[in-house]
Design brief:
2 copies of one chain form a homodimer. Chain A is an alpha/beta fold. Chain A is 37% helix and 18% strand. Chain A has 8 helices and 7 strands; from the N terminus they run αβαβαβαββααβαβα. The first copy, chain A, has a 7-stranded parallel sheet, sandwiched between helices. Chain A starts with a helix and ends in a 7-residue tail after the last helix.
Chain lengths: 217, 217
């Protein structure tokens, strides 16, 4: 019973996601669905990326949050279109909520649409938003066992950012275990070992994300 | 439509949770539903608590995980009953899954039943398991904005453990902001500022949890 209901919900989500994806392709917009645990660094990643690439690319942002506008407030200093979706307790964004707000962007004038999903390693990876690709962000302070314990996201991600590499010396994080588990789940996936606060790994990230602009896919 | 279905699911969950709660009361078992983001320290909290209190109290553990038995393996060194529930992708435990495994414990011979929920700040707080109370674990490396951004859990928790206090100097975590936000959501809730690896705050935690044993409630 519940399985059938879940299938219906997912089917309807998939249909709308397919429409969103077609629209993004038509408009040459690269839509990036950013997924992580709470506090892994999604908003800080957007801040660093907008500081570095905001002049080179036309970037829009959708901020998914359960209840506050705190993340959107942090991005207000950038002169870009930002739309906030409050899920009112919901644990993930879905393609319907995305579809409804796309009218608020001038898609003909965008290269990238970054979607910061709700902080949650599980549910967001089960709902296709129509994104061009998913991006996984995980931090060393969460432990090296996260790819093995939450494989759905890591299996589907087009790239993985391992953040808070500056805090690794203070934890028992074993980077060989992390790389090995990730390799079993998604062999060859680009892995960026970063500190969004100290700057490690960001040059490689900026280079990689720049190459994902729609014309060059 | 989906709201009605969700209400049915939650109603059915609540009915079963009420049955579980009655059974725990009858058996004098304190059931603690431990909720946090991935990697905040739930399993390490159980390790420290079993090391300190394993001789004084009769403790059982239910380990909720999406796919692996890694957390349960970490607790195998203790001579206690442990039952693992794999949610097969599900983002939270529910009262039905708890109810089904209770037969595997000798409830007459337990003081505490600790339930380590799936690593997720959102969905687990929406499903009553029949627990005596919820416990929130959050770590400094997740940022000081977590109570404001994920209020459901922090509103319901009977106590909050702020872990990884040893890593605070390396982050921009503002403990005054954290305490202030938490106070607005759940005034007077006991807050333990801990490092499960270095030992900070554990003495207070052991004292508090010991007083939650059913006879002394």
């Amino acid at each position: 019973m519940e399985i059938k209901i879940m299938k219906n919900i997912l089917d309807r989500n998939q249909n709308r996601a397919n429409e969103v994806r077609s629209l993004m392709t038509e408009k040459n917009v690269t839509m990036v669905n950013i997924i992580s645990s709470p506090g892994a660094g999604k908003t800080t990643l957007l801040e660093r990326t907008l500081e570095e690439l905001g002049d080179r690319f036309r970037i829009g942002v959708i901020e998914g949050d359960i209840t506050t506008d705190r993340d959107a407030q942090r991005l207000k200093r950038f002169d870009i279109p930002i739309v906030m979706i409050n899920t009112e307790g919901g644990c993930h964004l879905d393609s319907h909520s995305i579809s409804k707000v796309l009218d608020l962007f001038e898609l003909d004038n965008l290269d990238f649409l970054f979607v910061e999903n709700v902080g949650n390693l599980i549910c967001p990876s089960q709902f296709d938003l129509g994104e061009t690709f998913k991006l996984a962000v995980v931090s060393t302070t969460e432990g090296d066992d996260k790819p093995a314990k939450y494989p759905m996201l890591f299996r589907e991600a087009k790239a993985v950012l391992l953040n808070k590499i500056d805090l690794m010396p203070y934890t028992n994080f074993n980077i060989e275990n992390f790389r090995s588990d990730l390799g079993k789940i998604n062999a060859g996936v680009p892995l960026f070992e970063t500190s969004f606060t100290r700057g490690d790994g960001l040059k490689d990230w900026f280079g990689w994300i720049s190459r994902q602009v729609s014309g060059s896919l």
